[in-house]
Write a structure and sequence with these properties.
mainly alpha, Rossmann fold, Arc Repressor Mutant, subunit A, 3-stranded parallel sheet, 19 helices
């Protein structure tokens, strides 16, 4: 275990659902904290009052809990720290690091890249402040210099300060902007590693300038690559960014989702098995995260889903699929027969919902119309099957009866089983027909066959 202090945070805006990109960011923050025996925090950046919602906060928290990404302390709301943000702004005003800007936001306050309000005389500034004129507060960016900072994944990055506009730290209503609030909150909660998406790279010079102006320790910057869609565009709802809550509703296992997320940019993530969160944390090294952007691939996620499903116990499988069996015959079908059918379908299923649907589809009946009539031997087969007692109606017994019937009639197995399958389900393929007959149930199977026999007679 590393001895370094490590405190990370996931700081979503509660303005929407948790999606794949945010979940991966949360996971990497959590794994890095736990790898180092540190602390993982959750902070809701809810300063956008018009769009923020406590309902989204609850939904994000629940999705994280479902994934196994649980904060070590109660979640923090950025709006609960307004007084602290104001205090820090006041300190920066007294230190001369910021200045009031009375200009509109349409760019009229800038001439040749210079903010006129920055060079206003003290008398004019004091007079306009005293009169209560609306203003924001801007940070004084040093001119004519090269600002250099370090990102753990990308090394040293240099930016000319002349390319950075004096940025706002407080709005006209006095509330802190994102740049000030996030730095204040990260400092006060002793965040040591800021792990977030690479779209935030442009914020680093401004945020680090605030740290330096306040003489605070700067956290380690770690900007992970954004996740792309198949066309290598930024992942969005339009391009398939399904919410974590929807994956939950669709029956995905959190273990499969976490294993999939860990493989996005982390080259050392296991891809041939499902790994527990504790083991992932022991293995995780943020320095081994690649800089290139991964593509969100549902086929890859399905791969992890199938791995998880292959290790599920019989009891869990039965619990997931019990409602897929016909209620009329459910109680008469032994559990081991149901499990036999479920396991026949397991290899093609990545989620609980998909498996339950497959079972239901396998046992459903799509009536077919036979222009040439049913096979001439079908009535005799129906009699043979009807002779099986209720307590003997099991796949092994059914298979024996059908094989013996095929021998007596001189039929090849395919010539017998294929038409029976079509008559029983309406499908030309599926699990072994004896298992399907067993799980449809004696009464329902004979009822379906009787439908065709009556049509043939009439």
């Amino acid at each position: 275990m590393n001895a370094m202090i490590c405190i990370t945070r996931f700081a979503p805006s509660p303005t929407g659902s948790l999606h794949i990109g945010g979940a991966r960011t949360a996971l990497f923050n959590y794994l890095w904290a736990k790898h180092n025996g540190g602390t993982f925090l959750l902070r809701f950046e809810d300063t956008d009052k018009a769009r923020s919602s406590t309902q989204y906060e609850s939904a994000i928290s629940e999705d994280l809990r479902w994934l196994g990404i649980t904060p070590d302390e109660e979640p923090i709301r950025q709006t609960s720290r307004i007084a602290r943000h104001t205090e820090i702004l006041d300190r920066m005003i007294k230190a001369g690091s910021v200045y009031p800007c009375f200009c509109s936001e349409n760019g009229a306050h800038i001439t040749d890249g210079i903010h006129r309000c920055r060079y206003m005389s003290d008398d004019e500034r004091d007079s306009r402040l005293s009169s209560g004129e609306i203003h924001c507060w801007r940070f004084k960016v040093a001119s004519g210099r090269i600002f250099t900072y370090r990102d753990k994944l990308r090394g040293e990055i240099s930016v000319p300060t002349d390319a950075i506009e004096d940025f706002s730290l407080a709005r006209s209503d006095g509330s802190a902007t994102y740049l000030l609030a996030v730095v204040a909150d990260d400092h006060d909660y002793h965040i040591t590693h800021v792990i977030r998406g690479e779209e935030h790279l442009s914020n680093v010079p401004k945020q680090e300038m605030i740290y330096r102006a306040m003489r605070w320790n700067v956290p380690e910057w770690i900007h992970i690559p954004m996740i792309l869609d198949r066309d290598r565009h930024k992942l969005s709802k339009r391009s398939g960014a399904i919410s974590i809550s929807q994956y939950r509703k669709d029956g995905w296992s959190p273990e499969a989702i976490v294993s999939y997320l860990s493989s996005l940019s982390w080259s050392e993530a296991p891809t041939d098995r499902i790994v527990s969160m504790d083991e992932l944390a022991r293995m995780f090294d943020i320095a081994s995260v690649a800089k290139f952007s991964p593509v969100h691939d549902e086929d890859r996620m399905t791969h992890f889903g199938k791995i998880f499903m292959s290790n599920v116990t019989d009891k869990e499988l039965l619990d997931w699929c019990r409602d897929s069996f016909d209620p009329a015959s459910n109680g008469l079908i032994p559990d081991d027969e149901k499990i036999s059918l479920i396991r026949e379908l397991l290899d093609s299923s990545a989620t609980q919902r998909e498996l339950a649907f497959s079972v239901r589809s396998e046992l459903s009946w799509n009536r077919q119309v036979f222009g040439a009539g049913i096979p001439p031997w079908f009535a005799a087969l129906n009699d043979s099957l009807a002779a099986i007692a209720n307590d003997e109606w099991r796949a092994l017994k059914i298979k024996e009866v059908m094989k013996e019937f095929a021998r007596e009639k001189g039929l090849k197995a395919r010539d017998l089983f294929h038409p029976v399958r079509i008559l029983l389900t309406g499908s030309s393929r599926g699990a072994p027909i004896a298992i399907i007959l067993s799980c449809v149930g004696r009464e329902q199977s004979l009822k379906r066959f009787g439908y065709y026999l009556k049509r043939e007679i009439s």
